[in-house]
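Contributing: when you submit paired examples, paste them exactly as shown. First protein:
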Amino acid sequence: RSRKQSLEKKVGEMMLAIQAGAGDPAETLSKLAEILDGGEMVAGILLRAAELARQEKSSAVALQGEKERLAEKLVKVEGENERLNDQLWEMKLSAAEGLSASRKEIEVYLRRSEASEVLNEELSARLSRLVKERRQQREYIKLLEASVARLGGQLRGHDRGLRICDGALHRREVDEQLVAFRRSTEFAAAERWDYSLASAAVG
C-alpha cells in the first residue's frame, strides 16, 4: 500500500511538472528526471533528452538569427538595385538628350557646308566623333543593364535560399558576391571616366 501511495504521488508530481513546463520540452524533461531520481535509468534517459532539446532549441535560435541577418542584407542589396535602376534611367535620358542636341548641331553644319569645303571636312570629323560617342554610350548602357540583370538574378537566388533554407547560410558568400558586383560597376565607371577625359582632350 505504501508503494502504491508513493507511485500515485510520483504520478501526481509528474502531471504537475508536465503542466508547469508546457511549451518547454527541455524544462519538462528535467523536472520529470528529478521526480524519478537521477539514479534510475529512465531518469538518465530523460536528462539526456532534455539536453538534446536544449541544443536543438539553441540551434533553432542561431538559425533564426542568421536568417534575420540575411534578410537585412537582402534589403540592402535591393536598395542598391533600385539605385542602379535610377542611374540607368538617368543615363538613357542623358543619352537621348545628347543625341537630340547632336542632330541639331549636325543640321547647322550641313547648312554651312554648302558654302565651304573646309566646313565639309569639319562636319565629317564631327560626325565621326558623334558616332563614336553614341556607340560608347550604348556599350555603357548595355554594361549597366547586364549588371542590373546579374544583380536581379542574385536577388532571386538569395530569396530562394531564404525560402528553402534548412541550415545556416554563410554571410561571407553574400559579401563576396557584393564585392564582385561593386568591382564590375567601378570598372564600368572607370571606363566611362577614361572616355570622358579622352573626349575632353579631343574637344
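Second protein:
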Amino acid sequence: MPLVIGEDFHEILYNQIRLLTQFYPPTPAFNLVFKKDFSKSNKANEIYEVVYYLLNILDPVMTKKKLPSWPLISRDDEINFKKELLEYINSLNDLYEYANIPNIMLTHVILPTKSSRFMECMLLLTRLVLSEVLRNKFRRTVCLPLADESESFRKHYLSIEADNARKLRDFQELLKDKEEEHKANEKTVRKVDEEMRESVSRLNSANMLFVEKYPIYANLGDKFEALHEMMRKIQQINELSKSCKALQSYLDDTNLVLEVNNETSSNQVSSLLEFIKALTHLLQSKLSFKLPTPSCSEISSNSNTLYEIEKDFVILRNALTIRKEQTQLMIKQIDEM
C-alpha cells in the first residue's frame, strides 16, 4: 500500500533525524538545510544532504565508497550522484537483514520530495540508522525495525513461484525426454513388426514350396495302420512257421522219438498216425483247445503268404526311408532361409 504523506509524516521524520543529531554532530551544510519542514522543500540538493548524513552514520566507509561524487560541486557530480544513490539504496536490503526498504527508480531520486516512494525510503532509512546505532551502542539487538509482513509474504510468494517454475521446467524436460524415448520405441516396434511379417511371408512361401515339391499323402496314416496289421499277421505266421518246422523235423527223423519237458517218458512211435495222435493229445492237454492238424498244402500256402507280406513290408520300409530323407532335406532348407 502506498504511503500517505501528511503532516504527521513530516513531523515524525524530522524528530527521528533530530534525535540522531544529538549523538552525531552534523556538518554546517547540513545545519543550513535541516529545518522542521525540510521534507517539503522543492530543492533536491537539500534532501540529498540529509540522506548523505544518514548513510554516513550507517556506514562511513561504505558510503564514501558507494558515493564518490559527494560533495556535489558540478553538474556532472550531481548526475553521477543520483545514479550512485539509486544503486546504494537498492542494495541496503542485501546488506541489512531488517532493512525492508522498497526499491526505487531514478525518477524517484530526481524529484525526491515529489515522490512518496522516496520519502517512504527515507523514513525507513532513518529507522534503520536508529536501530543500528542502538545495537552498536548497547551491543544487543534492540529496537530492530519490525519486518514488513507484506514484504515477507511477497518474498515467500516469489520463492514459491521460483520453485514451481524450476519444477515445471524439470518436468517439461523430463516429458520431452520421455516423448523422444517413446518415439524411438515406436520406431523399433514398427521395425520388428515388419521383420516378423517378412519372416511369416517367407515361411508361408517355403511351406507352399514344400507342399508342391513333396505332396502330403492323406492316406499315410491308413498305410501305417495296415502295416501294423501286417506285422501282427507276420508274427502269427512266424509262430506257426516255427511250429511247422518243428513238426517237419520230427517227420524227417527216422527215430520218431517225442520228448515233452520230461513230463512223459520217451516213447517209440511205430507209425506216423500214432505220432500225430500223440502230438495232438499232448497239445490238447497243454493248450486246452483242439489244434487242427495242418496239411502240407496249408503249410505251403502259409509260407507263400509270409513271403508276399515280407516283400510288401520291404517296399513300404523303403518308401518311409525316402520320405524321411525328403523331410530332413526340407527342414534343412527352411533353417537356411
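If you have annotations for the second protein, write them as plain sentences, like these:
The radius of gyration is 63 Å.
Residues 259-266 have pLDDT under 50 and may be disordered.
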